[in-house]
Amino acid sequence: MSHKPLSEQDYQRLSATLARFAGHGCMNLERLDGFFAALLAGPEAVRPAECLPLILGDAFDDESAFPSEKALEQFVALLRGHWQDIAEALKQGEFQPWLDADAAGQTTGNDWAEGFAAGMELLNDDWGLLFDSPDNAPLLEPIMILGFERHPDPEMRPFVDAIDAETRAELLASLSPSVHGIHDFFAAIRRQLEQEEQELDREEPRRPH
Known about the structure:
mainly alpha, 8 helices, YecA family protein, YgfB-like, YgfB-like_sf
């Protein structure tokens, strides 16, 4: 069954629902996009429904958050639609991060990169494969720089001074190729593991009857 992409109206509805729970520590759409990108490009796909507590924050345990069971189902369907939109874009080589301008009209990419970093934490050990790969670890640089720019501990921030506009533009432009590179890196590992498993199955000696 082919996937029907979410419409602009769907995205407005998804964004509005997420914004309604902002006070509960819920992700906004930009952060959600980074989070899903990490889950889909990373070591193994984690389903959106499994991540509802992380996405909704305290609203997940609030029974009055959604007026009805149907409203919650519609919200989950929108999440799943966005998830599939990203999966499709990655497959086609056309992924672009969802970046919104802040109140000052600036596109900083921080929410997106922080969402990506939150997604990485779910399978922390497996992401170590990428950090340990000299050729591919640099793919994480733009994401880590933007993801830790606002870290509460100044020691964790990549730059002492603010990132200038030109550097930020370069970092934002690097996000899409980075995500594709990360996706390819883990896809190659999965293929190799599957191949090794198949070879082991073939080599298993047949037991005599």
